[in-house]
Amino acid sequence: MERACLAAPGSRILLRATKYDGSAHWIQPFRVVSDDGTLLVAQYAAKMPIYTSRGEFRSPYDSRVYFWRDRWYNVFRLSRPGCALALWYCNVTTPPRLEGDQLGYVDLDLDVAVRPGGCVELLDEDEFALHQRRYNYPLDVISAARSAANQVAQLALGNGFPFDLG
Ligand SMILES: [Mg+2]
Fold first, then answer.
1. Which residue from 17, 30, 102, 158 could staple onto 42, CB 3.0 to 4.6 Å apart?
2. C-alpha of residue 43 to centroid of ligand 1, in Å
3. Mean pLDDT calculated for residue range 116-136
4. pLDDT category, 5, cuts 50, 70, 90?
């Protein structure tokens, strides 16, 4: 099996998410908290510039992000600096790959938002339907994306890691 490239705690990595055709979607800087080869945890400081396909953006939220190399979703824990949890935001994506200091994956549109108190909402189903046609997603990608959205929603509802951290 291919050995995962490990990120050193404290080092900087750049997330480069694309859409299915390879076009840039989201570029965000992170500092690595930990990496065990499967789960990479990283943090983003509020107000650092983020490039998105809709222009530059500076998030008001500090984020701690959980990227699993074997899962089709990631989990962003968003909070205002110095404040309690505001929101969990989960992106459905292809499993991430780290190459050097670049973390890459394909964004598959679907998102799951989890509010404190446990309200779970599936977002962007319209975009997912549109992009299935526009980019010709293979059937296995469509089914992996749907099942990932379901898995992360179930994880949140069951208060599983990392949602148990509050
Ligand atoms: Mg989306």
1. 30
2. 20
3. 95
4. confident
pTM, two decimal places: 0.95
- Residue 123 CA to ligand 1 centre (angstroms): 7
Residues 6+ apart with CB under 8 A from 109: 92, 124, 127, 128, 131, 145
What structural domains and CATH numbers belong to the chain?
Answer: 12-159 (2.40.380.10)
Please tell me the distance between residue 1's alpha carbon and the centre of ligand 1 in angstroms.
31
Instruction: Tell me the pLDDT tens digit for each residue of 10-25.
Output: 999 999 999 999 999 9
